[in-house]
Amino acid sequence: MLEKEKQLNNITIQQSVRKVTILGSTGSIGTQALEVVSDHPTVFKVAVLSALKNATLLIQQALKFNPAVVVICDESKYHEVKNALSATDIKVLAGEAALSEVAAYSDSDIVLTALMGSVGLKPTIAAIKAGKNIALANKETLVVAGELITQLAAEHRVKILPVDSEHSAIFQCLVGEEQNEIEKIYLTASGGPFLGKTKDFLYTVKKEQALKHPNWVMGAKITIDSASLMNKGLEVIEAKWLFNLEPDQVDVIVHPQSIIHSLVQFTDGSMKAQMGLPDMKLPIQYALNYPDRLKNNFKRFNFFEYPNFSFLKADTETFRNLALAFDSLRKGGNMPCILNAANEVVVEAFLNDKIGFLQMSEVIEQCMEEIAFIEKPQLNDYLETDKHSRILAGELVTKSIV
Asked: Residues within the annotated binding site?
């Protein structure tokens, strides 16, 4: 009898395996997602993997997880990946356009979009149209085209499950509160490596300093965004669309310990917070297996190691990017798209020592002033805005060098 029960349990486990597409599998979020998959092999199965240009790591991942399809966006590395996987049944595709193709892959249950930047927009749209639930780690998708994405998700009855720790915190706080009105949400920010610093100090900082985040281990782009508070600004815009809020219902509070990941305040004044040690694997795991929680061996929080929590007002005068993000959200239309595209250009320039830390905000603000505003943009408008904003930002960076 016991043996029969074990067989039935095994059948149940096999039937409940969730097939996961990971777009951006070689980045920080993607590699941590694969750690989650490794920890729960009876719960998750990898269906698709994609990488921008890290062919070596993509090959290693493919050999370990045996997906049906892999994509290497850098077409010059197609043959390297193809040859390395020739002894397997794994299909190899190349080029950015292939991301949209695999995002709609039929034998997948959920798509984790961990791509960097606005390149995540088209694949996310393709996945939604194919009826795939989205585990969203690519905040730029909602920043660039939040209204379009949320409308499509509603039309195709697709869930957008946030992976960012702050948005996951809000999402978790709202479970069971569907009938209750949100008064305000508070996104917490660590303050980054330059908390409390002045403009005079920031004028001379280098990328090596900006890349030293005190609490989180992330990719270079998002780490620089965290140092400039642009990451928090992008999260503010994303939160508006994820939770159907007005701009004045979103606020930012600096919490250097990064234990309270965000808070919700309801109309009766009650507040809920989601807490935990800084570990991106927790929100990744929650999104991939929603609505069920999975037991894990992550380090547990010890109250006595954190006897004090502190909270500070965000300094939007010194860190202009956060103020610019709020401005773009209030303006609406294609303005957040301009903000995001210009930011991607200036962050890349800063990482290549072509522009100063404070100059990033100056270029972004000038782009917001000069690129044509469109109140009700369609997809093509977003794409054109993104292109023109990048061109202008690049020109401004070049002028600043000269």
From this structure: 26-29, 53-54, 138-140, 164-166, 190, 213, 219, 226, 231-232, 235
